[in-house]
Amino acid sequence: MKRADSTPRIIFSSEHGIDRSLISPKAIEVVDSLKSAGYSSELVGGCVRDLLLGRKPKDFDVTTNARPEEVRTLFRRCEVFGRRFQIAQVRIKNEVIQVATYRRFPTKKSRRRGSKFVSLNGKIIKDNLFGNIQQDAFRRDLTINSLYLHPSDMQIVDYTGGYEDARNGIVRIIGSPAERFREDPVRILRAIRFASLPAFSFDGATEKELSVYAHLLSGISNYRLSDELNKLLFNGRARTTLELLHQHEILRILIPPYKWLKAGMNDNHGVIDWMRLVLDATDERIQSGEHTSLAFTIAAILWPKFNNSLKKRSRRKRNYPFHVARDILHQQNIRTYIAGNVAQRIEAIWFFQKILETEDTTKSTRLVHSENFRPALRLFELRSKVGEVEGRKCRAWVKLRDQLVDESQPRMKRYRNRPRWR
């Protein structure tokens, strides 16, 4: 990796070969508007990395030397968000472009623990010190995310060696991994997510510190961890991500009900094997373009814990399955936020399992039209694969679902409340 005072490398379009048609016209419009107003501006981060890998980015980030309030005055539909890290979001039609001002590190004096910028444990609590593009490059987390692309001439500016790392499939933290993980432990999850990319792996220094500082994730808000967990689960590489999380002792931090997770590798719990099965199914649906919900994935991941706790809870207590479900979801919510409507669907998927086990398929066609039937049946299918329920029963429900899949549900007749004239 280069030094912070080194000259950047310029990569021309003839060398990197990025297809300009993959770039959003709205992102180019934002960059051009900022430049027309006298500011410097470039595409940055994950979108440049994805373009180098020949993939169409899901979203586009823009950097500039304009302050957030200055960006807001240039665009009609623009809002500024964030307290620790302010960012402008520009909306053009149905597309949102995030515009971030160049940042820099605080001075060495300001970076001391216990200052207004850094907490006592080394975590950054304020990150709105503005700088230039070079300072911004070395303030970012990974070398592959610190590349700047000028859409006008398609030149890439590389200060940190990120171009070579992207070409060679190396996930490398900029600077000292130990210091950067202390500043923001969420970088551990970001590094894991990018290391799950095909043909990507950690560099030695980054991988060495992952397990050492993983415990700091317990101090991150459940909202931020929930956002990162969703990215890990629904990137189409959840199975690979699971292996990395388990290998580096991070999985037990994200899923606190699994205090017995590690023991499950050595006895008959089979927790990790079950999670592999769940995430394989999730990856398969995402890669084939099918829909999968957060409620189903969380319900499936936590099913062994719910089922095991259900057997231990006294039957004499009224509504004991409800209390078991609430206890488990409360523990999970402490670590990763679960919205109320998602929690309700998770509970419904769990409670549906008893119905699928005991109801007669010939007398329960009405169940097929329930909004929770399909995700509940998907969980039921996974349970049949591990021998938890009868395969014959599962096949009967699948056959019923397939028979009625094309039947339209009866439409309710709408009555308008009109005044009665006499």
The chain-level mean pLDDT equals 85
Helical content band: 40-55%
Structural class: alpha+beta
Distance between the termini: 86 Å
CA-based gyration radius: 25 Å
Q: Numbering strands along the chain, what is their spatial order in the largest sheet? A: 1-8-7-2-3-6-5-4
Oligomeric composition of the shown chains: single chain
Low-confidence stretches: 263-269, 408-413, 418-422
Tell me about this structure.
The chain has 422 residues and is an alpha+beta fold. It is built from 18 helices and 10 strands. It has 2 domains: 9-175, Beta Polymerase, domain 2, CATH 3.30.460.10; 222-406, cca-adding enzyme, domain 2 (Orthogonal Bundle). The protein has helices at 13-16, 25-36, 46-52, 68-74, 133-139, 162-168, 177-183, 186-195, 204-213, 222-233, 238-247, 251-254, 271-287, 294-312, 320-335, 340-358, 373-385, 391-404; strands at residues 9-11, 41-44, 61-64, 78-81, 87-92, 95-101, 147-150, 155-158, 170-171, 201-202. The strands form 2 sheets. An 8-stranded mixed β-sheet has the order 1-8-7-2-3-6-5-4. Helix 15 (320-335) packs antiparallel against helix 16.
Keywords:
alpha+beta; Beta Polymerase, domain 2; eight-stranded mixed beta sheet; two-stranded parallel sheet; 18 helices; cca-adding enzyme, domain 2; disordered C terminus; 422 residues; 2 domains
